[in-house]
Amino acid sequence: MAEYAWTQQQAALLRDRKTPALDYDNLAEEIESLGKSQHRELGSRLDVLVMHLLKWRSQPSEHAGSWRSTIRTQRRELRRLLQHNASLRPLVARVMADDYGDARLEASDETGLPLATFSETCPWTPEQVLDADFWPEGETPTPRRMGFTA
Asked: How is the chain split into domains, by residue range?
């Protein structure tokens, strides 16, 4: 049986309270896998977001529309992830702390700046990182207009 069909069958059995027919071992594995997948998504999105915030802070003259877009996209997707998976919210600070070194290294690689340019610990709180109105150094980006001038 295909995985999707199996998940739908197991969900129906749970709803119908037909517990003897449940595939307990595989059901437990799938539930654990789903949780791990959500945790990986949280870490991956935070990593990309923090790395772009570091780039934004370290190279103010290089601010690009793609950086701004990536920051906004990651914040939006993190907001959605945390709305749908509230139990992940208490993990944000730990995941940020655990993964900050990777974001720092990626920022150094992408900017060409020495690793020492970036602080050894994340300079922002989880609340700041997730806040749509927060930009490093208090700067609010203004959208660039392409093509037409006044």
From this structure: 46-130
